[in-house]
Task: inverse folding
């Protein structure tokens, strides 16, 4: 989920979930998820194979390259996500990113709170923004940082502890920048569109945010979610999952299914802004995170967002008589995002023609 600034005056900050757990506090009512339309919460839903895409093949013009593109098109049209392998990052580097995340969250609270977000800012260490009394809170703490454009980074919010944190994040951002181009080009090619069609979303001024998530051990995984159901407001999202602890579930054919962890893979999911550009051919993935009473889980999500002034609309090549334009043109899509999310609605639905 990619955030926007909340409107002034209605929000407050809540305590880190980790703190509630350490204090052994009784679980507050506001964490209990009551939307039963969604079916029960359970970590034991069937785990399904998510399509696996070899990124190395996407740039090849050989017949295997063509068939990988076809696999990509099919994965994004039916699932809205895939497990990316052969992405050019060593497993040991992915482990380093995971380690830096774990070490940060393992720091004493006072140390982490040096990077706390303020009411006015979405960046920094903290958790759910409280807009209304009736809101259900997510069982998660996070460190949210803008990583691109580089000159907009707020380095005072970038942990200096663990020592490797900043360099690791810098390198990870660099690598994801390269992957972004490969994936966005391939998405266009798979639909026989101009390269620029999705690539424009990462043109100058595009934003990349990385969110380090901690899902602490939860006493009531049967009624509490780590993240409520949502689709991301991004163009695409890269998710590095915990190597050992599962928790991500995706909605497929109206049923929740668990996403297995492939340690060396990155999960790439499509966000609403690509669904819009593809005129609904690609699906923005609806997903949620369940909690666990025995083990905490970490993940690292990186969101790519077009420059807020860029107009997003269905690509011309995908609008025709058989397939009329599904969505209105929009700027700064993420500004629609937060309120809808907290109310359990999908912002993209407000743009349907
Ligand atoms: C997100 C998200 C999934 C996860 O941050 O938007 O969906 O497994 N994260 O943490
Ligand atoms: Ni998400």
Result:
């Amino acid at each position: 989920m990619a955030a926007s600034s909340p409107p002034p005056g209605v929000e407050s900050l809540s305590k880190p979930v980790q703190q509630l757990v350490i204090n052994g506090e009784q679980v507050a009512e506001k964490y209990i998820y009551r939307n039963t339309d969604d079916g029960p919460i359970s970590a034991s839903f069937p785990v399904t194979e998510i399509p696996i895409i070899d990124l190395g093949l996407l740039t090849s013009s050989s017949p295997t390259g063509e068939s990988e593109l076809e696999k990509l098109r099919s994965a994004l049209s039916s699932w809205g996500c895939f497990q990316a392998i052969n992405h050019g990052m060593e497993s040991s580097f992915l482990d380093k990113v995971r380690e830096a995340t774990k070490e940060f969250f393992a720091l004493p609270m006072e140390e982490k709170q040096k990077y706390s977000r303020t009411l006015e800012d979405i960046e920094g260490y903290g958790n759910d923004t409280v807009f209304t009394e009736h809101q259900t809170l997510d069982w998660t703490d996070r460190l949210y940082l803008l990583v691109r454009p580089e000159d907009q980074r707020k380095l005072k919010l970038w942990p200096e502890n663990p020592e490797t944190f900043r360099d690791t994040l810098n390198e990870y951002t660099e690598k994801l920048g390269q992957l972004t181009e490969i994936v966005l080009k391939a998405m266009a090619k798979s639909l026989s569109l101009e390269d620029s069609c999705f690539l424009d979303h990462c043109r100058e001024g595009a934003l990349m945010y990385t969110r380090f998530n901690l899902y602490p051990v939860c006493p009531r995984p049967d009624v509490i979610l780590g993240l409520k159901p949502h689709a991301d407001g991004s163009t695409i999202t890269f998710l590095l999952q915990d190597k050992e602890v599962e928790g991500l579930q995706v909605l497929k054919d109206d049923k929740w299914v668990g996403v297995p962890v492939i340690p060396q893979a990155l999960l790439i999911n499509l966000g609403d802004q690509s669904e819009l550009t593809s005129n609904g051919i690609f699906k923005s993935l609806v997903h949620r995170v369940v909690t666990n009473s025995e083990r905490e889980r970490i993940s690292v999500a990186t969101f790519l967002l077009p420059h807020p002034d860029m107009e997003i609309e269905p690509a011309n090549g995908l609008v025709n008589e058989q397939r009329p334009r599904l969505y209105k043109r929009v700027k700064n899509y993420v500004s629609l995002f937060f309120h809808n999310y907290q109310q359990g609605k999908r912002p993209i639905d407000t743009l349907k023609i």
